[in-house]
Amino acid sequence: MSSRPPYKGSRRRLVMAFDVGTTFSGISYSILDPGQVPEVKGVTRFPAQEHSSGSSKIPTIVYYDKQGTVRAIGAEAASEGIFEQAEDGDWYKVEWFKLHLRPNTRQTAHISEQLPPLPPQKKIIDVFADFFKYLFQCAASYIQETHANGRTLWNSLKDDIHFVLSHPNGWEGPQQSQMRQAAVIAGLIPDNTHGRSRVSFVTEGEASLHFSIENGLPADAMETGEGVVIVDAGGGTLDISAYSKSTNEVKDSFEEISAPQCHFHGSIFVSIHARQFLEDHLSDSAFIDDIDNMVRCFDRTTKLRFRNVNEPQFIKFGSTRDNEPESDIRYGQLKLMGSDVANFFEPSVRCIVQAVTEQQRTAHRAFSHIVLVGGFSSNDWLYQRVKEDLQPLGYNVIRPVNHLNKAVADGAISFYIDHYVHTRVSKFDYGQFSNVRYNPQNPEHVARYRDSYVSLSGERNIKNSFSVILPKVSETKEFSRKFHLSRTTQSSFKSASAVLWSYRGEITNPRWRDVDKGNYSLLCKIEMDLSGVDTESLAQTGPEGKFYLFHYKVILMFGLTELKAQVAWKENVSRAIGISCKHRTLEIPRLTRESRRGALLRFDMEGSLNYRYRSPARIIYD
Length: 622
Description:
This is Actin-like ATPase domain-containing protein. The chain is an alpha+beta fold.
């Protein structure tokens, strides 16, 4: 990859990335100076970890007391003696909380049973806010302490920081909305339009691609048309994304070549499988109450060191006085067969292999390189097993040489600076349920006659037709669909709303709500400001008298890392103004109050003069 160009902005700016992982979290940042080449830096010193030089990650753990006050967090929550303090104070230990934010689907419903509960007085957005606040304080201290004139530097930048928040591939608009609100609660940004615009989102898969480009992507994967799969193996999720070097003229650009995947088979699930094994193995043992401690010891030692299925493995959890030979416990150590430990990893291995083959099946370009990043990828057994299964299929499986657990945080900063990905793939069909004109010759319409009604215009329509606005695609562009509103009074045109749904099933062209209805999910509500509509031009006459018919488009901007929407309409005023223009298109701001909302005066190709209004629509997630 070519060297990064100098920053072209007109003023100095600080960009900060928070990687809140299931088990560990990190912070990266960059100070953007006009004319200078940006550098990605990491926070490597945290409270209670001051003497651990170069540590780029801290535990994603929070301890709360019964009043909901944070008592220990991050590195402090893993310090010596904290476990005893927590027991004495009846503190709540909150870990793996990131997964409580996951999308609530049928595929993820079982995860709740495997997660530690949140404290009774805390919602997931509150825990995220507390952790964001802590990360922000850590970054502030680090920058002030390690940079020349650090305090002056910080004071000049702290009020306009841009934050990049990473999340698993499977997180969508509702999760992004909650994370942004957590940033508001934490005091990172003010609760206004400008403040909210200072937060960007990036998937962990895309952040990992940016990291890999800068830290060891194979040279032939950088060739135009060649594909690569990024496997971000973290504490909670496995995020699989496929990209290829773009064939367009944009230098150093990549495109997504298949819909990204997110699976709940990260490293914590190895520990969950180990716990399930131990509960069965020690069901009649005097050491059954030591399982929590055994699992902690397994996490810190056995899981990390495991490399050979043919050698016995040991969990050292007690003292030399702890013995129970019939349970394979001698001198404070529990002996496990290597094959049993290998089985704890096997669901994660199978998941990665199956996900890669699925990416190959659905990708519109071939690939041969598999790049493993993320903290779980540093596990040698996982890497060797994945390599063992994928190499015979013709894949080259590699790990970048630099710190794998920094991939997401560093990559998130690179995402903001470099923007390597220019095309993304939609995972689902997005649209809304609407009405279609009844056709007695259409068997599907006849079968749904009970869902028909007569409109204000006197036409019979069928309800609950799924109108796709954004299909499963691989383009960076806008997608729109025409809709209309029929109302009996002009005053009712102050506002309107549209409900956006996603279809997650296998039907190529989903059309009806009652077909595969279990795969339709409510995504959000789009609120539209219609106060600028010229309602006089909407008057119609129907069987019941005068009514108003308004045609509009819902526009979804796809290709960004966050879904955005607009509403557009046009008003024909050619007679009033008396201008026509053929064979050209002009854009002239309309000098009325509507122009302040983005209205444009356009001459269309047919020669009729139209006002085309276009304004942002507000997306609300429940």
